[in-house]
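tool_call predict_complex ligand=6-O-phosphono-alpha-D-glucopyranose
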Amino acid sequence: MVATNYLSYTDSGALYGKPGLDLLLVETALCRAVIALQGAQVLEFTARDCAPLLWLSPAARFAPGSSVRGGVPVCLPWFGENRADPSKPKHGLVRGQSWTLESDEQHEDGRVLLRLSFSHPGDEVFAPSFHCSLTIGLGAALTFDLELTNTADVAAEYSWALHSYFAVDNVDTVQVEGLSGVEYLDKTTGFSRDRLEGNLNFSGEVDRVFEQAPAEQTILTQSPIHTRSENCHTVITWNPGAELAATMADVGPHYAGFVCVEHGNAFANSWQLAAGETTGAHLELAR
Ligand SMILES: O=P(O)(O)OC[C@H]1O[C@H](O)[C@H](O)[C@@H](O)[C@@H]1O
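tool_result ok
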């Protein structure tokens, strides 16, 4: 592993006083970012002259095998509960696995691109084998290019999301624009179906899956956050609210500082990949 003038290798003990995970630190004229090799999880991203884009829980734990609460965990090869077997880990398996940094480069415009990859051999947790790579772009915006290949010799279904935790002033006043008129499944009421009219507000526990969602949303907080995606047809919006957060050791009273607006393809939008087929998606996040 070679450090460059924009990339250094560190760990969660050095950055957060909580040892456990290896981290990449990128510092350029355009931004500062922290990425965990476990799960290819971006933990922090702050563009120059902007407020931090992402929320990282002050109570986050940095333990091998479990996802860190905050940043952008990658949920794959299934999103949420495994519907065929709910005893399997929530949100798939890649977020708790160590990824490989395949390449890093800095473009003339100052953007840094990190490409991380993960290969699953196929096992009793998820039978099909697959290979995925995530190219993380770090400039004025934070970008993701996900590429997934079904390396199994049979067709397989994949669902996934980039589970972004955005830093907001207060969950009680934040609104999400760009989902009006879209149908959603409400996880708090047994996945009943409803349609949002107007902006989304967060009051108490909100856990909604919007299928066939538009490509752009704006999170209206003091310094608005813009999201733009390509080939991500599902948006999931989540905040546990005070009561549920109190039962989560790594959230607790800090729940008011974030909203999750997650982009991917899940439920009706899940990917059906033929043997050997590759497909991809793009996401851009910025204040
Ligand atoms: O606690 P986690 O496994 O990271 O999941 C956190 C949340 O992720 C998504 O937003 C789901 O829709 C929620 O139901 C879930 O509670």
